[in-house]
Amino acid sequence: MNLLMFFGGLILLVIGANTLVRGASKLAMSFGISPLVVGLTIVAFGTSAPEVAVSLGAVLDGKTDIAIGNVVGSNIFNVLFILGISALIAPLVVNIQLIRQEVPIMLGASLLLLALALDGRLSFLDGGFLFALLVAYTVFLVVQSRRETQAAKDEFAEEIQPAEAGAWDSHWAAQIGLIAAGLVALVFGSDYLVQASVSFAKTMGVSDLVIGLTIVAAGTSMPEVATSIAAAIKGERDIAVGNVVGSSTFNILGCLGLSGLVSGNLGLAMAPSLLAFDIWVMLAVALACLPVFMTGREIARWEGGVFLGYYVAYVAYLILAAQQHDALPVFSSVMMGFFVPLTVVTLVVMVILRPVAASEHT
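The structure corresponding to this sequence follows.
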């Protein structure tokens, strides 16, 4: 029964997100808003609608660990799993704007979350501050879009088509109906997913936080998985990377911002294990994007394999720690004493040697 509720909720979340994006984007274009702006705002944020719905639903149900774990786990999942899988399909080209602007913004949002969480709680004011930053970031993107090249505008215009005259969704009433249906699906889907996740946690003997960091995080990231993999297969590899980076920024500013506001005076309590480990992993993952993206401006297949391997190791650590397994000390020693230092040395060598190789080639 819990499995049916979980997958039913997941299906409702995906359908609800797609329906909401379709209705909102067509309604916006009916009012004369350009496809570029719609793509940068409604469509980009729409893929994070499941995370928002689940986090808000969890806060309202008093399951704050699921709400926070969902966001932190989704950001780790976005970079390590989604980029890892996408790069294995095809090496991912990284747009220079991502390196100069979007990745530093994602890293800044991660650092800000760590700073706000150090007192053990994300307060109502903290949530309001994060959400205000999201509004400012969105306005900045819209203003910046006016300076985009015609090629970028044409790309979005091809991806996001207005409703055809005479089509059933060309009228504003139908578009509002799509938005309403999407919201209803998101509400029910999030409720089912949270209830099933809490039952899983009790059955497996692990905490709500671990379930939020793993099962819920992976489930609510399905729209990003589908979008990035499809983009990689079609050769739109800059979209595959941009989708992940933009979603990670929105998860912190939007999901946790709204969750903090909904929590009221109580705020969102941060579990000690989250502050001691998981947020630092999220920050390290965001930081790792810079040298990987900068070296050759692409994510090679082997780098995607490393990302994917680290996600498997992260989940394995969470499971071993939750069960207090005897293999945990050995596993931790091998990871911290061998694989992590080896990865750091490799990244440093890549940063030093690749620019030299590029200059020699030119």
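The domain at 2-325 is CATH 1.20.1420.30 (A middle domain of Talin 1).
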